[in-house]
Amino acid sequence: MSVQNFDFCNPTRIVFGKETIQRLNDLIPQDAKVLIIIGGGSVRKNGTLSEVETALGKRHFDVFEGIEANPTFETSMQAVEKIRHDNFNFVLGVGGGSVMDATKFIAGAVKYSGDTWEIITSKGKKVNQVIPFGFVPTLPATGSEMNTNAVISRKTTFDKIGIANPLFSPLFSVIDPTKTYSLPERQVANGVADAFVHVMEQYLTYSVHAAVQDRFAEGLLLTLIEEGPKTLKNPQDYESRANFIWAATMALNGLIGAGVPQDWATHMIGHELTILYGIDHGRTLSILLPSLLNEMRKEKREKLIQYGRRVWGLQGSDEEKIIDEAIAKTRTFFESIGIKTHLKEYDVDSSAVEKVVEQLKRHNLTALGENGDITLEVSRRIVEASL
Ligand code: NZQ
Ligand code: ZN
């Protein structure tokens, strides 16, 4: 088997480094009428918003505040109404993955003439134009700053659904690592875990002898293993924070996923855990991934051994032992950065198993994984093993 055909294009401009927010002045047209989208106020408190406002200078702008973690359709639609009503023609998301994802949806929904919920049910495919948008990311985790995905929730109906469209590529992301210093430990750990699992979902499948993608993926995993704990310990150490941030961006910008099979079952099951129980995204992944790797150990055998040897430095000829240790080390890594990896530690009991399976069925997620062989029965075993 060899690397699959691919068509890779990532048009997002990345401006990275200290004191870069002022660059917004040359990235956004002078005559733009800008709606800044923010979350619950962290970017007000840490000074990012005021720097952004200064950079916008004399441009007409306003702020829409209140995008929640795990952004909702309802709140995003309030921003859409505001844009339509006041004729904004540029959207600037300033915040974490939730703000960025909401901004993508908003940019597409403003121009959408039908019922905007169709954007979600079509998984983003029905979007055929967006208003221009860019980002000032403040939380390294999702890769949303340089990819074409967004995840939107509707709490009343227990839906958390991924949407994707090439039009969801941001025009630019201005990443100043110092703007992430104010993150609480919990969010930094979530970000390390999320980025780690993004790499795993594109790497730990079956081999297509994609040497470049594999080595890049292993490099990112090693970087996260080394820099994650450092940046948690010393949040204001620029070097480790900058390395962590760039690893998180590269983990899900299309590069390592080009031409290789991808899994994404951990994410799909994880989204159901978030919408049902409110567990942070990165934590759901840390709970599920070790169980999934163990459940799929036959199908993923070759890659699990490669991962154990190249990423964790495991040696010896007992391949079953290498697989066991590679999975154990993965779990220990999540726990070492302060993430609990069992559902019961989040006060979730065995009744979750049926609930998650029911959600997966309702969302047609019945053939997950790189081979489409993670059926509802397999997902059930994965959740059971994660209790
Ligand atoms: O709301 P505010 O006040 O801004 O506070 C946020 C929020 O409470 C806070 N925060 C962000 N930057 C901060 C900060 N606090 C202090 N200092 C800063 N610099 O952090 C909290 C969590 O923010 P959120 O944006 O929700 O986190 P994250 O970036 O982890 O995003 C999670 C969302 O992204 C989706 C997830 O499903 C979830 O909905 N994902 C998006 C993906 C994509 N677009 O490609 C892929 C991912 O797999 C993921 O599914
Ligand atoms: Zn993720």
Can you summarize this structure?
This protein has 387 residues and is of the alpha/beta class. It contains 15 helices and 8 strands. A 4-stranded parallel beta sheet has the order 3-2-4-5, with helices on both faces. A two-stranded parallel ribbon has the order 1-8. A two-stranded antiparallel ribbon has the order 6-7.
Mind sketching the topology for me?
Blueprint: E1 13-16, H1 24-27, E2 33-38, H2 42-45, H3 48-56, E3 60-65, H4 73-86, E4 90-95, H5 97-109, H6 117-121, E5 133-137, E6 149-154, E7 159-164, E8 172-175, H7 185-203, H8 211-233, H9 238-251, H10 265-277, H11 281-295, H12 301-310, H13 319-336, H14 351-362, H15 376-385
Parallel strand pairs: 1-8, 2-3, 2-4, 4-5
Antiparallel strand pairs: 6-7
This protein binds 5,6-dihydroxy-NADP and zinc ion.
Q: Keywords, please?
A:
387 residues, alpha/beta, 4-stranded parallel β-sheet, two-stranded parallel ribbon, 15 helices, 8 strands, binds 5,6-dihydroxy-NADP, binds zinc ion
